[in-house]
């Protein structure tokens, strides 16, 4: 989800809720402690130089059990970040600490924001020598094709 998308969704909500893909929720008394831009410059295993930018939201679970972040407040935090930091319309990455700090992509299910698990991947598979995915064939398709061409008169034997 891009920053512009969350800005369009927030005015339609009464509460800001974050949910994990497994259905559990970030405690409702969370705080948004950071909104910023993270820039990552790196070289992949194939030698290609890459640059990525994301808008980062950091959620924090405090012992402030009466706290509830309202959509208007989050919109104000975003607006201040855009004004003071020049944040652009990039994909949002959410940081939240469970056992360690996790990074999540952000989605919306019509009611709550969903923290989607991020995964790693090789960006230069052709340079890593990874085998290419083999084409999957149905055995039933093979037998019907071979039966059509391998008749006694076909000359294939």
Structure description:
The protein is α/β, with parallel strands linked by helices. Helices cover 24% and strands 31% of the residues. It is built from four helices and six strands. Strands 1-6-5-4-3-2 form a six-stranded mixed sheet, covered by helices on one side. The longest helix is centred in the middle third of the chain and has 15 residues.
Mean pLDDT, nearest integer? 90
Estimated radius of gyration: 24 Å
Structural class: alpha/beta
The major sheet is characterized as: 6 strands, mixed
Largest sheet, spatial ordering of strands: 1-6-5-4-3-2
DSSP summary: helix tally: 4
What general form does the structure show? Answer: elongated
Proportion of helical residues? 10-25%
Uncertain runs: none
Write down how many β-strands occur, each being a DSSP E stretch of 2 or more residues: 6
Q: How big a fraction of the residues is strand?
A: 25-35%
Core attributes:
157 residues; alpha/beta; six-stranded mixed beta sheet; 24% helix; 31% strand; elongated
Task: Give a summary of the structure in a few sentences.
With 157 residues, the protein is of the alpha/beta class.
Helices, strands, pairings?
Blueprint: H1 3-9, E1 18-20, E2 30-43, E3 49-61, H2 71-85, E4 92-97, E5 101-108, E6 113-117, H3 125-128, H4 139-149
Parallel strand pairs: 1-6, 3-4
Antiparallel strand pairs: 2-3, 4-5, 5-6
